[in-house]
Amino acid sequence: MLRPIPPGTRDVLPDEMRELRAIQTALLGTFENAGFSEVRTPTLEYADSMELADRRAADSAYRFFDDRGEMLALRTDMTIPIARLVADRFRDVDPPHRLSYFANAYRAVTPQRGELREFGQAGVELIGVPGAEGTAEVVALLDKSLASVGLSEAVIGIGHSGLWEALLEDGGVNPETIETTASLLADHDLVGVERSMKESDSIADETVYQATEMIQMRGGSEVLEQARRFGGERFSDALGRLTAAFEEITRRQIGRQVLIDLGMLREIGYYTGSTIEVYDAAVGEIIGGGGRYDGLMNKFGLELPAAGFTLYIERIHKAQLERGALSSAARRGPEADHV
């Protein structure tokens, strides 16, 4: 009789473990070659650190009391712990800080929807390089990282966390409606977004039209040109920042498609600028994400700009299987190299 394990968790057997280890080796080697040094943080953090950094992250964390009555939480991602680490350990070290990681994270999700409670992440944090330059460095490394694991057809999407709020604020929309529609947009519920706007008394028809059109706009630089007719001063400023990031990325001649997505709004609350998502048509899930989080370090008492990305290891592995992109070494196993 099989002993059950908690929903949203899984056992990993030897063949798959070799394949996952090959992903780790490839990614960490790519990070190291780009000058990013690996760090590790505790699996457990104090819950108030999570709450200080991002309420949404704290709400999805597994929390419990220790023997002293302190509230602890399992980390929900690696960005918040590394922000704390830099503020605590590198306060007197001149930036920039280029750090990488490979670790498991934990979130209270709905396992019935196929989501994992425990999942692997690999990624980087670039702390101390501002604006378009920092964003472009992160995207360029993301491109190399995807190539290192054989995902040449994966697409990088880039958006801006401030576009949606700026467009609605310029249109005079009340804060409650902005918050409601932003939550729906982060969940990719475009039908719900449109319905919520039409049901609100605070949104003019022209703003509804612009917002509905904007969140469906994806493509190259022509998308930025088309969007210039939307919004007002706040929207123009956010769009200008996205334009600067895209132009710097283009200047670096990244060898894969980078898609502008004006409807991108990530569910993580600490993003404050350009945002990143990674798609592969072979799987129906986002396989990575990231962006700028220039306000997060300040919450830990250190005023530094920052950006980074995370790749979800199980989804990377799934994409490899669908694409036939597993390395021959991972398939054979280590013993075959000694035959």
How would you name the oligomeric state of the polypeptide chains in this document?
single chain
Mean pLDDT: 91
Biggest sheet: strands side by side, in what order? 1-5-6-12-11-10-7-9-8
Category by helix and strand content: alpha+beta
Ends distance: 38 Å
Task: Walk me through this protein's architecture.
It contains 14 helices and 12 strands. With 339 residues, it is α+β, with helices and mostly antiparallel strands. The strands form 2 sheets. The protein has a 9-stranded mixed sheet with strand order 1-5-6-12-11-10-7-9-8, sandwiched between helices. A 3-stranded antiparallel sheet has the order 2-4-3. Strand 10 (274-279) and strand 11 (288-292) form a beta hairpin. Helix 1 runs antiparallel to helix 5 and helix 6 runs antiparallel to helix 7. The longest helix is centred in the first third of the chain and has 20 residues, at 14-33. The two termini are 38 Å apart. The model is unreliable at 332-339 (pLDDT under 50).
Q: Which features does this protein show?
A:
18% strand, three-stranded antiparallel sheet, 339 residues, 14 helices, nine-stranded mixed sheet, disordered C terminus, alpha+beta
Strand-helix topology:
Blueprint: H1 14-33, E1 37-38, E2 44-46, H2 47-53, H3 55-59, E3 63-65, E4 71-74, H4 79-89, E5 97-106, E6 118-127, H5 131-148, E7 155-160, H6 163-170, H7 175-186, H8 190-199, H9 205-214, E8 218-219, H10 221-227, H11 233-251, E9 258-261, E10 274-279, E11 288-292, H12 296-299, E12 306-312, H13 313-323, H14 328-332
Parallel strand pairs: 1-5, 7-9
Antiparallel strand pairs: 2-4, 3-4, 5-6, 6-12, 7-10, 8-9, 10-11, 11-12
Helix pairs in contact: 1-5, 1-13, 5-11, 6-7, 6-11, 7-8
